[in-house]
Amino acid sequence: MFASTLGPVSDWQVEWKYDGIRGQVVRRQGQTWIWSRGEELVTERFPEIVALSQALPDGTVLDGEIMVWKDDRPAAFSLLQQRIGRKTLTKKVLADAPVSFMAYDILEQDGKDIRDLPQGDRRARLEALLAPTGFQISPVENDRSWLEFARRREQSRERGVEGFMLKRLDAAYGTGRTKADGLWWKWKIDPMTIDCVLIYAQAGHGRRASLYTDYTFAVWNRPPRDKQEADAVLDAIARKEPPPSRAEGESEDPLKLVPFAKAYSGLSDEEFRQVDAIIRRNTIEKFGPVRSVKPTLVFELGFEGINRSGRHRSGIAVRFPRMLRIRQDKPLHEADTLAHLEVLLKL
User: Fold this and answer.
1) Confidence (pLDDT) at 81
2) Domain 19-137 fold
3) What CATH class does 192-345 carry?
4) I need a surface site. Which of 147, 203, 211, 268 has the fewest CB within 10 A?
């Protein structure tokens, strides 16, 4: 399929796709500026990159990924988020979350805009410019066929990356959604998935402001012994009562649903309308714009990454969650558990 769509492998530059913050390093008149993809000036947040940039000649603009780099590999995105959230960059913060800039393109050289040059030419200039500096350069991967690249792509999670980026060697630097122009393609790994239960809902925005489309999902803290045990918990939720407590002599923790993720995308308009009707029929309480809902639906949720988090009740945070489908075929007592998330943490 890739060969018919993209043509020969030799027409493309293939790199690993890193999970960080896309940014640009601008060096002009002896000064450095670092801009995020959202056009936010973040220079003061990354003194390590500013120090590296002193080796760059004036009139240089680099494109790349800002990320935490530890033990000779990219660290989890959550560590970068923690670093960004710090108001003061102490020595401990800098040591625990050392930031690196993985350069993968050069947009300006010697004060000249070179974005119209072919990708291959810009890559050669990038390598020559950064060779004597401490900057990392996103390595180019080589294989003889798309099939071999597909096999290597299966190593993505163990490498701490999201898959591949494919860039046409004869293409100028594109802006915006370059995939539509056939310049850059994201060949990401398939998402991790979990079957979870809808427990809270909030109205959407824009054209979906009249529908409940923003959902909170939960998993069981442990596998229910049977349907009856799960039903007892669901009935207690509907009555706004705490879950049944541990009986005398029992060793297992009381069964309960533990929230772990929020998602608002992935369903069609018709599916959102159907779920909205179910939410309205099964609302238990209202908390401002949020409704607690009697659990009645299981969803398959997909996400790109998973990390431990002390800020979440489940102890786990997922990255880029989205709804893949409504599991009409799956009863609530067969939804996944915290143990399933623990398994995904180890992948």
Assistant:
1) 78
2) D-amino Acid Aminotransferase; Chain A, domain 1 (3.30.470)
3) mainly beta
4) 268
